Amino acid sequence: MLPDSNIELERATLGCMIASPQACYEALCGQLGKDHFASKKHQIMFGSVERCYRNSGEVDVALLHSYLIETGAGTTTGWVEINEMVEYVPTWTLIRTYVPRLDELRIRRAKRLAIADAAKAIAKGEDDKADEFLEKAVQLKSRKKPKKTVTHQMGELQQFLNGEAGAPLLTGWPSIDQALKFTRGRLYAIAARMKEGKTTIAIQLALGLARNGYSVHMFSGEMNQQDCNLLLLRIMSKVQLGYGSLPALNSLLSGMVHTSAMERHQLRIEFDDTSRSLPEITREAKRLRGKVDVFIVDHSSIIPVPGHDKVRGVPAVTQACKQLLAVECNSVVILLSQFSEQDPKIKSAPGLSNVYGGGALKQDADAVTILSRESWSGSGPAAKLVVALNRQPFLGAISLEYDTKLGIYRDPK
Q: Which value, to the nearest 10 degrees, does the dihedral of the CA atoms of residues 181, 187, 191, 196 take?
């Protein structure tokens, strides 16, 4: 066994990460890296696991094995060993115990190496280099992020209350707020298949933001203003409009809708359904500069861009959303995106590579999420929002619930 190492602990840590996306999230937030693993094979395995998680929000065993084959380790680290790693741990929550222990071992190995280098330098008469190595050994410490002081927390709270730049805008969805932290000057993308409900969840987020006092302007290239308003009223009243058959039921629905409509007029939500081209959107955004907190663009591949088709025009749309709407207008921008057509025989969940202009989103967006329902079958109450790309620490899946009767999403929290 290598000095200051625990091979079984390394296997158990990798098993936790393969078994649970939450374990991956907690490990990466705990600053776990390749140098925490003494075994070269485990370093390669960790790199492949991290790659799987950052690309899809979970660790698929088949995809993991293909990554290992690319690195040349697939022949020695096969299906059997991967499954053994998963079966080795009773629960993924043990990752919280494993990571600090691996960090202690990493520090010991680094100190041992620094002291050995210092001894070699002394033998060569290089006292200055020896002092540098010894100083390095003394300064080695845990990578665990320090806890915020009370003063720092109070400063952040005051910044939020003052509405200063950098303070996150709250949507009223705790799980989404914690993961994405909607901040002015940033671009957030929500990608989904057709009829998956990306416009619905965007309007639900708009409603939550408006109820917290923010102004929202939505450029809708897919739904007209009347349909957007009906969808908003359905979300607010929590009734499926137009389905009442009895007079009493219709009267009840009308009253609920009227109450929601009264609230609608007090909220600062505007729907722009003129199917504007990209130059027209940029002109309107400049006119609204300083008046809008959140822009929603629905969706990237349907916005007309002169001289480009819907695929080649996406990079221009994402760049305009980032540079003009987000940065210059100092607003939060939520850009909806759609998947390109996928072979129906393929049962795996689509990723960034399946999104129209996915490369442009990787370059311009601060966060890219993938909305899905019931393992991509589009039915059932289970839903999730997978954070596939994020400049913030969080990566992984946000659990949601889908109301099949009303056609709206809910936050389980």
A: 70
Q: Are 412 and 240 in contact (CB under 8 A)?
A: no
Q: Which residues contact 76 (CB under 8 A, 6 or more apart)?
A: 41
How far apart CA 371 and CA 193 sit, in angstroms, is: 8
User: Do 51 and 67 form a contact (C-beta atoms < 8 A)?
Assistant: yes
Q: b or e along 315-351 (b: 16 or more beta carbons within 10 Å of the residue's beta carbon)? A: bbbbebbbebbbeebebbbbbbbbbeeeeeeeeebbb
Cβ-based neighbour number of residue 299 at 10 Å: 25
- Cβ atoms of residues 59 and 46 within 8 Å: no
For residue 189, the SS3 value is: strand
Does the pTM of the predicted model rise above 0.85? no
The DSSP output letter for 146 is P
Q: How many residues does the chain have?
A: 413
Longest dimension (CA), the chain: 98
Residue range 152-175, pLDDT digits in tens: 344 444 444 444 446 788 888 888
- Residue 262, helix vs strand vs coil: helix
How do residues 172-218 score in pLDDT, each as one tens digit? 888 888 888 898 889 999 988 887 888 889 999 998 888 888 899 99
CA 121 and chain centroid, separation: 47
**DSSP state letter for 124:** T
- For 52, counting Cβ atoms within 10 Å of its Cβ (0-12 exposed, 13-18 middle, 19+ buried), the class is buried
Residue at 204: amino acid letter: Q
215: number of Cβ within 10 Å: 18
User: Of the candidates 30, 27, 31, 2, which has an alpha carbon nearest to the alpha carbon of residue 12?
Assistant: 27
d(CA 362, CA 352): 8
Q: CA–CA separation, 383 vs 400, rounded Å? A: 5
Separation CA 281–CA 292 (nearest Å):
14
Under 8 Å between Cβ of 402 and 383: yes
DSSP letters, 29-65, are HTT--GGG--SHHHHHHHHHHHHHHHHHSS--HHHHH
Handedness of CA 273, 276, 278, 283 (dihedral sign): negative
What is the spatial distance between Cα 394 and Cα 21, in angstroms, rounded to a whole number?
Answer: 11
Q: Which residues pair with 205 in a beta bridge?
A: none
SS3 state of residue 110: helix
